[in-house]
Amino acid sequence: MSVLTGWRAALRIARRDALRAKGRSALVVAMIALPVLGVTAADVTYRSSTPTVAENLTAKMGSADAVFSSTGIGPVPLEQMPDASTWGTPDDGPEIPSEDEREPVDVPATFPKGSRYLTEQSVPAVVTTRHGVANTEIVELRTSDPAVRGRLDLVDGAYPHGEGEVVATEHFLESAGLGIGSRTTLRGPEQTYTITGSVELPGELAKSALYADPGAVLAPWKAAADRDEKVVPPYPGDMTWLVRGPAGAGVSWPDVLKANGKGVVVLSRQVALDPPPDSEVPLLAHQDVSSFGDSSSELSAALVTVVAMAVLEIVLLAGPAFAVGARRSRRQLGLVGTCGGDRGQVRAVVLSGGLVLGAVGAVAGVAAGIGLTVLFRPMIEGWRGSRFGELDIRPWELLGIAVIGLVTGILAALAPAIVAGRQSVLESLTGRRGTRRSSRVLPVVGCVALAGGVAVAVYGGTTGDTRFVAGGSVVAELGVLACIPVIVGFLGRLGARLPLSPRMALRDAARNRGRTAPAVAAVMAAVAGTVAIATYTTSVMAEHDYDRMRSLTPGTVALVASEATAVDQLPLARTAAEQNLPVSGGRADIGRVWAGSDCTVYYEEENSCGTLELVKPTGKGHSCPLQGAGAKKLAESLSADEHKKLMSSPACVDEYITAQALSTGDSNIAVGDASLLRSYVKLDDPAAAEALAAGTPVLLNPAYAQDGQVTLKAVHTYNERDKENRKLHPGKARTTTDRLKVYVAPAKYAATPGIRMILPQRTADRLGLHTAAYGSVYTVTHTPTDAEQQAVAAAFTQAGNGVYLQSETQTETRDEDVVLLILALFAGVVTLGAAAITTGLAKADAEADLTTLSAVGAPPGVRRSLSGFQCVVVALTGVLLGTAAGVVPAVALRLVDLREAMEMMRAQPMDSAYTPIVMPWETIGLLALVVPVLAGLLAAAFAGSRLALARRAG
């Protein structure tokens, strides 16, 4: 028999065997197709979502040839890069004039002859919505012109024509509760517009804006402001020009250089797609273009690592499934031997199964990956915030992915083929199995690889080399894989005191390590990758949350008067807030305090208002050691934890916390009572409340206190026009310094945004200080929605538009949460599949044992519970080992981040070096509790409880 004929027969047997065992074949195909599907979907999504230069240009200029814009420095010659990413003035050019002396640039005069153009100009505005009013942007651009296509596309309705019509982006319509045909009014000039259509910007799907024809908004708005002084005039942004050059000519590089000579920057499609040589770019002659490091080697290392781990994953998953097939087909393979087939031909039959199922899985995976990408394309585009240019399918890349899947299927069948070829014909025909002792060398090698891999990964983390991190992590995981047979064998000793089914499941797993270990390894590999990414992502999210500057305390909103004359509007604003916001507690009012004339009123004249300063003592516990002389030297000796402790100390905490919604003065002294402590500061302390009631200030930052007292320095300087406040301190300006006994709050309240000390009203009066209402604070059940904020804004506008709402914006974690969920689902599916494979193999192996159980009178439910516990053993063991293995690369990568953060901190001591490692307990809990239990229940549900007794062979 020739080689070709032998393989043809083997392939025919493998095809028939695959059709005969449809369930097992489907499982193997699914295990091979799942990674192929994921890689295919990732490849197509990446290629389609990464815009080309041409697609980027279309998103910026539509179908126009160029975008012309003025730099704002006047008609001063400049030089630019071909893609307009950088521009500057030549060294030997004229000086840039001051803002008062800058002349406007006649941009249209720089267009090539025969060009036509569109103008674009935006202006911030307040418009009415279904819920109230909202801040948005109105853009004057002739959206109906074909030159805009690709930059802005009509989704529904019609383009605007002339005055009184606008189109809106879908994001604006959704947040405003409006639709096509709705009317919206521009507050101020009170111009009303009809929304004729909805549009989207393919490159900015989340943009919220209205679009009108040129002259439909700005001109009537300016006219209304000229007629009525109460109408605030518009403050539009810079105008840009979308230019179409002469037919067939476009806008060339000489045209760009000519425009540069008049002070105009040009982004030309023709130049960006076919840039001139560096010798023709004047800017390159004056500027050093530094070459960035080539990261191709790191990218290649990462790619090889991912591919190797994916192949290993499929082999570990599908290998036991082929072993199931070989065990179930051992009589058939024995018959091949009796008919004269040698061991090579027996191996060929099993390998042909890998070839057949690998081919089907690869093709199915590629097809499903493309189909799922097309199906979920709108969702992916929504997550990214931009449309795909076009579905970019690269046949050679997909062919390579399919070939990897096919080869992996063959590799998965290799070990079962070798085992099947070694079996004697007698063992195959009688169903007997020989015994083979476990290797004693492999666990030792595994322990060495585990220790060495961890050491290499940690070394890579501390030195900042991600290649060592990737390589060490893979070696460590392979070391754990080598130790799995010993770990599985140890599990058998744990079942001595357990009930029958779990005891048999543990002992069966230990006795048949050849099928248990690969399945546990498959689960471990999938869970390790999931835990690694989830741990790193969760840690980065925790770091960003720590670094975020909060403008308000959590769960609060503030109503603030924008100027001193708007205080009278606060009562109506409070009523509107209490009616429209999710208020959960009482109101706490805040007042301002100042000395001399109010600087928020008399700010235009120099030295015409007073100052009030809370003097900070010097010395240890008062001065921040991370600022001033010796700070860098101290930073070099600090660890990350020591630096974090210093940064969180009262002495340093308000040296870097600058983001705040409450602006009660330079010293952050607020006038209030105990309600402000409870609702905003979150300090529920009866002693502090009693102190305020008794006229004693409450100091939130202990660094300003010395011996329980603070120093308050007031400079009573008055403006000549401030007759009313001067009555309190007639005569010349004077300076007073008072020592006040204070109640010092615990150190953790030093980071309260916007308030350093709460001063009782009667104490301010006693000190001769001036006070006025500033706003109110409310506790809320959730961050106000767009609709709630728009309703409140409408009421504020009716009250006089002098009060505004401040709320803490929530950090956007939706994308990270989706990633963690997808990872958990992927690992869960792999765990269920591996557990199912193991259960099937155990069922094939243990037919004789189950027959014996039935013969000795075991209840029918034992068979179900045994299958369930076999699944639980595999799933739980793999999840726990995978969690431990996945922590290694995550920790190593965080060490890389820590090294970079420490370098930045030592250069700038006030920069945070906090680099936490946070475990994703929700993901781990889902994998360690839910998935094993689900696997056990499914295995028990689908396992037959009845068994037909048969005579045992031999």
Blueprint (SSEs and pairs):
Blueprint: H1 3-20, H2 22-49, H3 53-61, E1 66-70, E2 79-80, E3 87-88, E4 116-128, E5 133-140, E6 153-157, E7 165-169, H4 170-176, E8 183-186, E9 191-200, E10 210-212, H5 218-227, E11 240-244, H6 253-260, E12 264-268, H7 269-273, H8 282-286, H9 296-328, H10 330-338, H11 343-375, H12 377-384, H13 395-422, H14 425-430, H15 441-463, H16 466-491, H17 500-511, H18 513-547, E13 556-561, H19 570-580, E14 583-594, E15 611-615, H20 631-636, H21 640-647, H22 650-656, E16 669-671, H23 674-681, H24 686-693, E17 698-699, E18 709-716, H25 723-726, E19 734-741, E20 743-744, E21 757-759, H26 761-766, E22 770-780, H27 786-799, E23 803-807, H28 814-845, H29 847-855, H30 861-907, H31 921-942
Parallel strand pairs: 5-10, 7-9, 16-21, 17-20
Antiparallel strand pairs: 1-11, 1-12, 2-3, 4-5, 4-11, 6-9, 7-10, 8-9, 13-22, 13-23, 14-22, 15-18, 17-21, 18-19
What this model shows, in words?
This protein has 954 residues and is an alpha+beta fold. It has 31 helices and 23 strands. Strands 1, 4, 5, 6, 7, 8, 9, 10, 11 and 12 form a ten-stranded mixed β-sheet that branches. The longest helix has 47 residues, at 861-907. The radius of gyration is 37 Å and the shape is globular. 43% of the residues are buried. The model is unreliable at 289-302 (pLDDT under 50).
Compact overview of the structure:
With 954 residues, the chain is α+β, with helices and mostly antiparallel strands.
